[in-house]
Amino acid sequence: MRWDRDKSENELTKWFTPSKPATKNYVGRGTLDRTIFREFSQQGRQVLVFGPTGAGKTSMVLDNLAKLKEKYGTNSIRVTMTNTTNLESFIADIANKLHLMRNVKTIETNEKSNNVDGSIKIFSWSARGKESQQDISEQYTGTDDFAILEEALFKSNTVLVVDDMENLSDEATDLRVRLAEIAKNMSDDAVNYEKSYAKIIFVGIANTAEQLWSDVQSLKSRLATISVPYLNRSESSQIVETGWKKAELKSNSEQVEKTVYISSGIGKVVHELGQKTGYAAIDDNSETIHDDYIEKAIHEIFEVNELEYESKLNQAKNKASTKTTVRNYVLYAMANDDRINMTMQDILKAVNKLRHDDHGKANSISPILSQLKSPKFDILTSEDRNSWRFTDPMFKAYVREHKDQLLLKNKQE
Q: What is the DSSP letter of 329?
């Protein structure tokens, strides 16, 4: 069959999705997927899925929610947090996504106290009639929006996904507290809804759990916390190979490996490199991937941050000595490693291998790690003194692409 250029471009757009969660080209992640699905299936269990930006957390959540729907008939709604999200905007968004009309009525009372000014607010959430996609015929009325939300989720068998929790501003503490409270309450009240798998799934970064536990300590025993790492090489390779195959573009294993290596396990970059490489082939009216198409795609991705990244790398690497310095070795070793975090011993072992020294001590790289963490460089970060990673995973990918610069002076050694 003759290669169809337009069809190929359409397939690239469908199978590579760098700007949204991967649903069509989602790669199963083995044990991790099984663990998440079992937690999703456990009634009364709330879940936090956390990990670094670009690890594919949301894609994994959505894929497993689709499985949950197939098995238990659940619905789901997703709210993405921003730095402007507050309690009122969150509730309005939720009501809209549940296809419910929300009305607020203020009733005057005769009682006054420190907390009541002589009036009380009554919240009423009701189905939109024929427009409603939820099987909810009741009208929910009460004095607390979150109590109404809990009831609506349970009765409609709906999972609420609260995404990008780390984006909430300090001013939105009241919203985070209310979310922690409703999560705790939904665990306690699940016994009253035997046929419902409603729950709250939080998606965020590592310190999201600590914030939620700090707000409501009793939530800790009710919240499953699942860490999602970056994609491994096999998973990344599968995404690239699938996308190119669906677009009927021919490639070889070395080209897939090159694309995967530069992507550094960052889902967005895997998808973007795969897509842009395919576009470069199509623009050249070629059904075969060539190496220069990959190089072009890499350049396009880094072009946005090229000046910043180039300056950062030039500042960090040492160019004055006749020999490659330890700082260059550290950057090379950490960029070339597939792990997100490396211990000091991991880094030392890799550095010693590069400098052909089996006896190098930790104190030979400790000052370098501190330098690269300092505000002057802001390249590395650490949760403790023995676990190090790149502050910006995209910069790690950039260093991978330019790593040979770091060992240029080592050729004569």
A: H
**Distance, CA of 65 to CA of 75 (rounded, Å):** 8
What is the identity of the amino acid at 139? Q
CB 400 within 8 A of CB 262: yes
Beta carbons within 10 angstroms of residue 186's beta carbon? 23
Residues 42 and 109 in one domain: yes
| Residue found by looking up tokens 């995973």 in the block | 393
Q: Flag whether 163 is in a domain.
A: yes
What are residue 122's DSSP bridge partners?
105
pLDDT, tens digit, 9 for 90 and up, residues 227-237: 999 999 999 99
Residues 256 and 271 in one domain: yes
Phi, psi of 345 (to 5 degrees): -70, -35
How far is C-alpha 51 from the geometric centre of its chain's CA atoms? 6
Asked whether residue 399 is assigned to any structural domain, the reply reads yes
Do 327 and 317 form a contact (C-beta atoms < 8 A)?
yes
**Which residues of the chain are modeled with pLDDT < 50?**
130-132, 136, 410-413
Beta 158-163 vs 199-204: how paired, if at all? parallel
If asked whether residues 186 and 284 sit together in one domain, one would say no
What separation, in Å, do the N-terminal and C-terminal C-alpha atoms of the chain show? 55
